[in-house]
Amino acid sequence: MTKLAICPGSFDPVTFGHLDIIERASKVFDHVIVAVFHNEGKTPLFNTNERMALLKESTAHLNNVSIDSHGGLLMDYAREKSACAVVRGLRAVSDFEYELQITSMNRKLNKDVETFFIMSNNKYSFLSSSMVKEVAKYDANVSDLVPTCVEKALKAKFNRG
């Protein structure tokens, strides 16, 4: 039986921190679906199709990773895909408190799906998509924070490319 995991997020945009988690998950699970979800609390810079395209390009080297999107509940999506796990990255203690609440609710919604937390690589522990967008808006160098395709897309969004 294939061990399928879902790595959900808004990925607006994908960063090297995200890719670190995705790559490490791809070594543990037979297949990883990176699923772009809409977060009602955020106004995205990139639309869903743009985020998916950036993820596809950034994960092209990973044969057991696919990209998808979903607009509903993660646990409904996990059931639909027959996933056995959800993979989430943790950067700091504050992430853990938030993720604990979400994991508890997810377990209530679907007890058959386990959540696995992967600690962020220390060099990405400060990194967030929001921070990348903020510094890119002011034309700061983000080449060590995001893949080249994302850097180009950010420049284009902020009319600097």
From TrEMBL:
Pathway(s) of this molecule: Cofactor biosynthesis; coenzyme A biosynthesis; CoA from (R)-pantothenate: step 4/5
Record-linked Pfam families: CTP_transf_like (PF01467)
CC annotations in GO: cytoplasm
Annotated EC: 2.7.7.3
Domain Cytidyltransferase-like, first and last residues per copy: 6-134
Annotated GO MF terms: ATP binding; pantetheine-phosphate adenylyltransferase activity
InterPro entries, alphabetized: Cyt_trans-like, PPAT, Rossmann-like_a/b/a_fold
Catalytic reaction annotation: (R)-4'-phosphopantetheine + ATP + H(+) = 3'-dephospho-CoA + diphosphate
Keyword Magnesium: yes
Localization annotation: Cytoplasm
Superkingdom of source: Bacteria
Swiss-Prot/TrEMBL keywords: ATP-binding, Coenzyme A biosynthesis, Cytoplasm, Magnesium, Nucleotide-binding, Nucleotidyltransferase, Transferase
Entry's Gene Ontology BP terms: coenzyme A biosynthetic process
Cofactor(s) this protein requires: Mg(2+)
Entry binding sites for substrate: S10, K42, L74, R88
Site description Transition state stabilizer, residues in chain: H18
Broad EC category: transferase
Recorded family membership: Belongs to the bacterial CoaD family.
PANTHER family in the cross-refs: PHOSPHOPANTETHEINE ADENYLYLTRANSFERASE
Function (record text): Reversibly transfers an adenylyl group from ATP to 4'-phosphopantetheine, yielding dephospho-CoA (dPCoA) and pyrophosphate.
Subunit structure of this chain's protein: Homohexamer.
Protein name per UniProt: Phosphopantetheine adenylyltransferase
Source organism of this protein record: Halolactibacillus alkaliphilus
Lineage, broadest ranks: Bacteria, Bacillati, Bacillota, Bacilli, Bacillales
Gene designation per UniProt: coaD
